[in-house]
Amino acid sequence: MSSQKKAKLGPIELEVIHGTIRAAELEIEAAVERTARSPMIRDQHDYRVALFDAKGRKLTGRSYSAIVEPVFEYFGEDKIFPGDVFFWNDPYNSCGGIGHVPDLCTTVPIFHEDRLIGFSQVFGHHDDIGGAVPGSLPVHAPDSWMEGVLIPPIKLYERGVLNEAAFRIITRNSRLEDHLAGDLDAEIGACKLGSRRIVSLAERYGVETLEAAFEQILKNAAEIFRREILPKIKDGVYHYEDYIEADGVEDGKIHALRLTMTKTADKIVLDFNGTDPEAKGPINWSLDEVEGRYFRKWLAPVLRSLAASPERAAEIDSNEGVLDVIDVVFPQKGTLITPTFGKPTGMRFFLMLRSLGVFAACLSKATDGRMPADHETIRIWGLTGGRNRDDFFLFREVLGGGGPGRPWADGSDVVHIVPNSRNLPAEFSETRYPIMVEQLALKEDSGGAGFRRGGFGYDKKIRALDECRLISNADRSILGCYGVNGGQTGQIYQVSVIENGDETIHPGMSDTVVVKPGASVRVVTTGGGGWGDPLAREADKVVYDLQCGLISEQSARDNYGVVVTLKGRQWTHDAAQTQARREKLRKERGIPPMFDRGETFRAMKAKGMVRYPDNWTDPDEGWNAVGEGASFPQAAE
Fold first, then answer.
1. Around Cβ 185, how many Cβ atoms within 10 Å?
2. What is the signed CA dihedral for 443, 449, 450, 455, rounded to 10 degrees?
């Protein structure tokens, strides 16, 4: 194609190409959903898709995805052919893009005639890929080999020919062989669909014009972050840390992720030196490859919270262009995010959320608290049983939690960090598995109190109709999600078994608890942290939450300072008494801290359970809540 054709790329053509790429990703997702076999992929949507250019650069920011670098690293550009399908799941051979063994990544190169012009990719969290425990996430695993079969980058198809031996080995290692085979076929077919959509763009506009559009799309993303987001962050150096409560192997120890953020006029540098050593149990996350390209793209969407409006935030792509504004500095080998080969990684999603949280906290310091609070919007739980392969079952859900309170809105309820994910419908679950869904509700008072409160978590109860084993892969069962700028911490996760009227609470990381027929499992997921002073929340909003059963009368009185009365079935508040109570509570409390981690954390700190490394100071100390302008926000009663 001539350079003259390339020069014809204008704003209209660019917008059409950009929109078509976005639409193609939606179409890939629809294809996966409609053709996959497993509930985890088909019904709960725990998969991600992406389109890349020929250099492996991600073209959109609709959602996080894996990366293409393993194809170049293990095969090279001269070994990529039409009809190839690349495949891997090894966390230590994925250039940081695949975090734990159940995530299988399928990548298809896109060719226009004989020219490589991009890649189409799907990766999903699959039901089972072997290992010590059904679901391939053993909470007590001391190494990667207990977590399932490890597959380094291979060609599952080469020039259109299936590697049947590899396919059989992969599927044979799954307890749900048919599910896995069907899912892989669905993902490969969806990748090929995405490939066809990009080829049609090349045929319509020409390859040079298309590649010029790719370049401009990435350039525009970097420019938007520099122009609209970075100026809102004060230059300086900020630090924060947060914790994983347990690793499943070593008891009585919290594990800290530490971040020092340096902000300059045109760049953010995120330095994770000081992070605790790699864990014995499966909470590690291997990231320190190819300049942390995956990690930087994972973190970048946090910055969109500083956009001019939520609507504008939704328009901003976090594609490969964000690498121009975010750098990462990794610690030496042997930490939680730089583990040595073989350290288990199954619960790496704990660190995924902590990394977002420490970044957001540093940004809160740099923006006078104008960032959302913390959230824990992913955990996996389930029941598994059966006496042999014929009646084996794995009921499993990826449950969300309360979203964070934000300067502009309350937190969303029971949301999931994986876009478009959902819980399993009761009707589906009861038809397919020996269970009965007894309750699905929002957990009262679970959202952290605030001027804009945190979202509420699930309160779900399921009765087992056959003997089974409980699976719980969850953190935040001791330390709740932190509140910001005067907001309070959200309530913690809890899983319990109720039998003969007795309720027994189990650790958030459990997979050996036997549940007898007739017993019920109750799962309460985390509430989001609150944002802003709860004593400034509009009294009418407090009364509304009370009327809806979202908060208790005690919370209305103690956390929000609202004096209420029940008249018949209607709650009302007394404005004069509320004002007086709030003034009293403010005087007793003083200025609230910038971050609230909850009473449990304060108790742990007082007992010396929280220790800081050399050259590191308490990241909470000296930071108080601030309001719009010079004073803390005070809303009219």
1. 14
2. -10
